[in-house]
Automatic annotation (TrEMBL):
Domain Integrase catalytic: 1-100
InterPro entries hit by this protein: Integrase_cat-core, RNaseH-like_sf, RNaseH_sf, Transposase_IS3/IS150/IS904
Molecular function terms, GO-annotated: nucleic acid binding
Pfam families: rve_2 (PF13333)
Any GO BP annotation: DNA integration
Top-level taxon in the UniProt lineage: Bacteria
Protein known as: Putative transposase
Coiled-coil parts of chain: none
Matching PANTHER family: TRANSPOSASE INSF FOR INSERTION SEQUENCE IS3B-RELATED, TRANSPOSASE INSO FOR INSERTION SEQUENCE ELEMENT IS911B-RELATED
Length: 104
């Protein structure tokens, strides 16, 4: 029941009708940053930089399925266990839980 979203900038390759059709055929929703606004992508660009430096560049993968499995594990680690200084030393899940508990 998952409905994946692919977010990108407005590069010419992402605006091609052939590309849009492939996404639609695979039931992937396309999301684009606003024109001239790179801040829309800043959060995900930062995450991909961290993912590559903490996981991808440190390992070798024998298959796409192995890489896929490792990325899924890393995302769980990133959200649940990896502490962030800008989140007061909490993981993203801990921070959200703490924040929403304290605003109620």
């Amino acid at each position: 029941h998952e409905k994946p979203i692919l977010h990108s900038d407005q590069g010419w390759q992402y605006r091609l009708e052939k590309y849009k059709k492939k996404l639609k055929d695979k039931q992937i929703m396309q999301s684009m940053s606003r024109k001239g606004n790179c801040l829309d992508n800043a959060i995900i660009e930062n995450f991909f930089g961290v993912l590559k430096s903490e996981l991808f560049y440190l390992n070798e993968y024998n298959s796409v399925s192995q890489l896929h499995s490792e990325i899924r594990k890393y995302i769980k680690y990133y959200n649940r266990d990896r502490v962030r200084l800008n989140l007061n030393g909490m993981s993203p899940v801990e921070y959200r839980t703490h924040y929403f508990k304290n605003i109620a």
